[in-house]
Specification:
480 residues; alpha/beta; Aldehyde Dehydrogenase, Chain A, domain 1; Aldehyde Dehydrogenase, Chain A, domain 2; 2 domains; seven-stranded mixed β-sheet; six-stranded mixed β-sheet; 39% helix; 21% strand; binds adenosine-5'-diphosphate
């Protein structure tokens, strides 16, 4: 089967419903082998201009005039079409970003689920009537921003397209999507699927290319009314600065250093898989990865021993072999992660998983550090690789101090049977999501997601995203 069986011309962008081939190209490699995979278009500022113009035409035309119910039906149909192509999408993603097939398949199913959720939600967003002065009727209208820009990273392309483009389309916005240069193929495939499922031309435009070129052009484009960005803090700052010039709202989801806090009374049998998986899933290349495991002294040795056992069983290899971990996305990312591991030379490596391939891909053995001081660089900086640190603590106050002691605040988990402690910590933790006796809650399409501090601002997922992708108009009518 060809890599991209969707009738997409090579090295092209989707602009206004047409696939436009580009002369400038970027070579893409398979992270599992380091070998060339395909080429994508190296989009320019002119391509972004054309995509924004096409999105404006769609807003002024069929797409903008469509009822919420009709929009919902189209999104629901797209969801079904994505489900019908789950295996194909998973195979493309596995080769493009090195994600083990099972995880890639889960991403495709999540993309379908976002379409179903936002398809169902599209006609359930309502305004209010507001009691006001005598002789007035006042009500609010939720309206789309207009053209929304979506700059997404390479770690979960399908899920992030689902949550941001899905919600934006549900509200009637037209989208211009700039996927990460290392992970464009499922974005293109999704656009082709959506087009075939009946999404009108120009409602979703996809321009591939470099962050410094197509990305920067989109972020600063005066025809864009809202920017949604997921990625690094450094790029997030640039996106917000560009948005400030145009005075438009931005949603920034920028990663974290998310803790799981394990108390002496925790159900360790339940906790163990979550403690490990939340750190090594997708080879740790997850904004909401749990890279810090805080454990109370009474169970510290036991948790450490059981995590060591789990790490010893982890196998790393090519994405199509579908082991526990695939490669990292790129040689650059491998250098960054191995650089961090080297900074732990003064620490104890409790365990490492095994690389079980001779392939020349970007492999890093998952690494568990023990007894890590909370202020160590490995306990403070986002590594974005399969590295976790174990940090012991004495009591609840110390656990909270450590958990809140980084610049980030995306996700946190509490493992305890003490209900009052659960409630106290859920309030006190500096995070956009808190999980009690679980982590990640099965993906959580329905659950608002986003951070505080350097983890960003704004919320995606759930109904909350629909508020973010719309603006509120107040209408005050005097009728006497
Ligand atoms: P990483 O450094 O891991 O690649 P980034 O945050 O730089 O993470 O990338 C996330 C997304 O942001 C990608 O789609 C990338 O192309 C885009 N990007 C990078 N730099 C810029 C920029 N200056 N302006 C707009 N988008 C950018």
């Amino acid at each position: 089967m060809p890599l991209m069986p969707f009738d997409i011309p090579p090295s092209s962008n989707l602009i206004g419903g047409d696939w436009i081939c580009s002369d400038a190209k970027i070579q893409i490699t398979d992270p599992s082998t380091g070998h060339p995979l395909t080429q994508i278009a190296r989009g320019t500022a002119a391509d972004i201009d054309a995509a924004v113009a096409a999105a404006q035409v769609a807003r002024a035309g069929d797409w903008g005039r469509m009822t919420a119910t009709e929009r919902g039906r189209i999104l629901t149909r797209i969801g079904q079409a994505v489900l019908d192509h789950t295996d194909t999408l998973a195979r493309i993603e596995a080769q493009d970003v090195g994600k083990p097939l099972t995880q890639a398949r889960a991403d495709a199913v999540a993309l379908a689920r976002y379409m179903e959720f936002y398809g169902g939600a599209a006609d359930k967003i309502m305004g209010e009537t507001i009691p006001y002065l005598d002789g007035y009727t006042v009500y609010t209208l939720r309206e789309p921003h207009g053209v929304t820009g979506h700059i997404i990273p390479w770690n979960y392309p399908m899920q992030i397209i689902g949550r941001s483009v899905g919600a934006a389309l549900a509200m009637g916005n037209s989208c211009v999507l700039k996927p990460a240069e290392d992970a464009c193929l499922t974005a293109l495939a999704f656009a082709a699927i959506a087009q075939k499922a009946g999404l009108p031309a120009g409602a979703l435009n996809v321009v591939t290319g470099l962050g410094s070129e197509a990305g920067a052009a989109l972020a600063s484009h005066p025809g864009v009314q809202h920017m949604s960005f997921t990625g690094s803090v450094r790029t997030g700052e640039a996106i917000q600065a560009a948005a400030a010039k145009n005075v438009i709202p931005v949603t920034l989801e920028l990663g974290g250093k998310s803790p799981q806090i394990v108390f002496d009374d925790a159900d360790l049998d339940r906790a163990l898989p979550f403690l490990v998986n939340a750190g090594v899933q997708n080879a740790g290349q997850t904004c909401s990865a749990s890279s810090r495991i805080l454990v109370q002294r009474g169970v510290y040795d036991q948790v450490r021993a059981r995590m060591v056992e789990a790490y010893n069983a982890l196998r790393v290899g090519p994405a199509l072999d579908d082991l526990n971990l695939g490669p990292l996305i790129s040689a650059r990312q491998t250098d960054i992660v191995t650089g961090f591991i080297a900074q732990g030379a003064d620490l104890t490596i409790a365990a490492q998983g095994q690389i079980v391939t001779d392939a020349t891909g970007h492999y890093v053995a998952p690494t568990l550090f023990a007894d890590v001081p909370p202020d160590h660089v490995l306990a403070q900086d986002e590594i974005f690789g399969p590295v976790q640190v174990l940090i012991p603590f004495e009591d609840e106050a110390e656990a909270l101090r450590i958990a809140n002691g980084t610049a980030y605040g995306l996700v946190a988990a509490i493992w305890t049977r003490d209900g009052a402690r659960q409630m106290r910590l859920a309030r006190a933790l500096h995070a956009g999501q808190v999980f009690i006796n679980n982590y990640g809650a099965g993906g959580g399409v329905e659950l608002p997601f986003g951070g505080v501090g350097k983890s960003g601002h704004g919320r995606e997922k759930g109904f909350e995203a629909l508020y973010g992708f719309s603006t509120l108009k107040t209408v005050a009518a005097w009728h006497g």
